[in-house]
Amino acid sequence: MKSEIEAEMVVRAAKEAGFCATLSRRQFLFLCAGAVTSLAALNTWRVWGADAPIVITDNAKGLLLADPSRCVGCLRCELACTEFNDGRAQPSLARIKVGRNMNFGPEGPLGGARMQGAWGNGLFIQDTCRQCPHPVPCATACPENAIQAAPETGARIVDTSACVGCRLCQRACPWNMIGFDEQSQKATKCFLCQGVPKCVEACPSGALRYVAWRDLTREAAPRAALLVVPPEKAKGCLDCHKP
Amino acid sequence: MAEVNGGFAGKVLRVDLSTGKISFDDSVEKYREVLGGTGIGYKVLWEEVPAGTGPFDGANKVVFATGVLAGTGVPCNGRTAVTTLFPSCWPKPLVASGHMGGQFAAKLKYAGYDAVIVEGKADRPVWLFIRDGRVEIRDAGHLWGAGIRRTTLAISQEMGPESVVAAIGQAGEHLVPLSVVMNSVSHSAGGVGAVMGAKNLKAIGVQGSGSVRIAGDKSEWERLVKFHLSILGGNNQHVVPSFPHPQSEYYNPSSRWVGAPGKRWGAAEPPIEINGGLYDLNRIAFRSNSGAFYLGEQAWQYTVRGNGCTGCPLRCHTILKVPSVAAKYGIREVAQNTCGGMVFGRSFFKQLSGGLFGPASLEACMVGMHMADDLGVWCNYGQLQRDLIKLYYDGTLKAELGSAEYASFPWDKYENGDPAFLFEILPRIARRQGELGHALGLGTGGLLAHWSIPEEAWTHDAACGYWKLGHPKHHANEDDGQCGVIINTQYNRDPQCHSHVNFIRNGLPLAVQKKLATEIWGAPEAVDGVGDYTPMNIHKARRARWSLVRKELHDSLGLCNWMGPWVASPLKERGYTGDDSLESRFFSLATGQRLSREDLDRIGERIFVLHRALTIRDMGSVEMRSRHDLTPPWIYQAPSGAQAFTKGSIRMDSQDIAKAMELFYEVMGWEKATGAPTAEAYTRLGLQYVAEGLAVKNLVPGGKR
């Protein structure tokens, strides 16, 4: 029911914006993602087309920006992330990831002149969540729609009450940024600490900043290229993403 | 006892390399009374390694132990104590610990272990694989003979890039007493490499995905962590900068807080200008630069960044990039270390063109780090290098070495301060090649015995820096008068204690230090100005006791005694006070077991006295004052002829030091005549079982109990 109301809002907005009432499905989606977003406080537009839900998530507002040249590898960001949010020190659960690149850089212990990290050129590379634009790979992969945009920051956050611990989001993230909490059996990811990221506050070398969102997903090759879309969602996606 | 809900990882891993048996103890149940670190180390040696055991015997054990606060966000944690019978301790091996930072402690905790006890002896080279609950003894045949770097890469390829590897190099394999175990590039524990080598244990690789639970309220924890950050100074808790700055009331040129705004990490890409406020918590990492401290201004242009231990915002292992050394010496252009590890190479030379802050010094440091940190050679806090200088320049080498061996060294390079000399000397030490390589690697005691040189030749020579038992001074009278002397008498290697010197050298004016001393130790007379000493008093004895107790406490909590304690701060608005109860506040929140400062200090004292008891047991004597707590004659001499207690002299007075020892024994509750803890002293600390064990051997003063 809610989705129908949302759809109606989009159509109304389109009319007010001077579009004709009869929109193709494709035009309709572009409107959702673009011109009319300012008309509603919602970050996610959900409409029904054919038999499948189509989810288009608005861009996030904020973003963690990491400067590797300043990173000193103390991991205080990972510790602040988990201690202050979860009450335990657990870098494997941290939503910013430095430790995994610290020894040898993202390409691992290959030896040779290209090797990064403490054993290589001394550069520490922080991995942060890019808060991807539509289609948000982790959210798209989730069969439970448990990854949603947070109202204040637009951060893509895990709704732990909906997460069933299937780990498909982990597989889907091109940047390998989704953690999994073995204790609660739920996925976890960067939620930008409601706009005051603990990691930024904790960094002793000013290597992290919280800035206005921009699309970082096209600036570096993904670490993993596995597309995970549940079949029931794929039907809807195919409307635009034609094979 | 209160329930413990956090802090501890929970298990102690025990690996018997003789049988291949792997077992687990409950840390809290079995070791909570000694916390972790050196506490677990001493307890294991007390309970399981009988007196008379040799360091390379299968019966010796090596205990890698971290502590409750390791792996958490408490600033300046990340320490692992490696406790065993030290092969460099002379004339008889006794208990001691090496201490390493890096990432090993945190990973071990995340894997679920507070400590690893290695016992027995493998019949072939092995390494220990630890990934969370999975522990395996794996074949190291392909790694034997390799340096630490190659070993680390090979194990990381097998375990994954996030694992941490603590490995020995060729020195440990060849049972060189002056050898280290090393993790995370440059973080070594000295003196224990050969004990691993004797066990055929090449390395321990650890990967952990678990957590260290904080029992207390997470907001309270966050507040305390932030408070701690606010009272941090620079390296070694030097709380005033080395440079004048409008934000700081004081400055002190000898401070290790060298990162002045405007300086730059010149080898970062692109270079980074230090900016922002002096006390900005997002700039703490720029305060320290070991390169600049030890190598002067030139180091800034070669600084890539600071590196260091897990959770420490003060990055004392400076990464330097010096492209010219790659072409000139065929070594990597990037190296990192701090303090003695950074100056390892240059310290061999009596003269370097351009001095300590010149280019030859820098190159010697780069070559030294490249070689020593791969071969796994230990400097014995600089004694190795001072020994070579003394032996060469007093003609001993020419007399002792065969002419062919003597001629095989390029002594002209040595005299000229050419770093290329290091390529000749270091591999021979690591592989025990030739007379000189063998003798130097034994450590000073073994070396003196090997060539029948009387120890007096060393103990009378101030320039040599030697103290006793084969080991040198470490922050003794040159830094802290009687307090430094007392501390240097207590251990079986150099004392590795910084509690005292981190206060004395914190850079604050003496008047401010005296104000703080009154608050902490009860009287302004507890501290003197450096090189401006006054006769001994009871307050200094109390400060010595406090220093030793905090040292053991830090070593057993996983905290860094090179950075703490934090009893002074850079904050004028606090009157420069720090917090003397920080350790107990963190301990209480982490574990859920509420302990006061006094409660926790009592545990620290228990650990310290356990070390004393082990030393008494293994020496087979209570006569600690006359046989163990020795001072070298050089501290009572002054080449200038200056008297003790004159400004500018570090000369001590022997009667005053005798009084110092008595006052120290008094505040410890030990017998003055022998310097041995009394039965009451043991009992007061919950060490009745220790007193009973010693009483059987008639090793408690006052006879049988």
How would you sum up this structure in a few lines?
By secondary structure, chain A is of the alpha+beta class.
Question: Which features characterize this protein?
Answer:
heterodimer; A: 243 residues; alpha+beta; two-stranded antiparallel ribbon; 8 helices; 25% helix; 15% strand; globular; B: 705 residues; Aldehyde Ferredoxin Oxidoreductase,  A, domain 1; 4 domains; six-stranded mixed beta sheet; 30 helices; 20 strands; 38% helix; 13% strand
Give an overview in words.
The complex is a heterodimer of chains A (243) and B (705). With 243 residues, chain A is α+β, with helices and mostly antiparallel strands. Among the domains of chain A are: 2-60, no CATH class; 64-126 and 195-214, no CATH class. Chain A has helices spanning 2-16, 25-33, 76-86, 99-102, 137-141, 168-172, 198-202, 231-237; strands spanning 44-49, 52-57, 62-66, 88-89, 147-149, 156-158, 179-181, 186-188, 208-212. Chain A has a two-stranded antiparallel sheet. Residues 16-23 and 25-42 of chain A have low confidence and may be disordered. By secondary structure, chain B is an alpha+beta fold. Chain B has 4 domains: 11-207, Aldehyde Ferredoxin Oxidoreductase,  A, domain 1, CATH 3.60.9.10; 232-379, no CATH class; 384-462, no CATH class; 474-578 and 596-696, Aldehyde Ferredoxin Oxidoreductase Protein, subunit A, domain 3 (Orthogonal Bundle). Chain B is built from 30 helices and 20 strands. In chain B, the strands form 5 sheets. Chain B has a 6-stranded mixed beta sheet. In chain B, a hairpin with a 6-residue loop joins strand 14 and strand 15. The radius of gyration of chain B is 24 Å and the shape is globular. The chains are: A alpha+beta (243), B alpha+beta (705). The interface between A and B is large, with 45 and 55 residues.
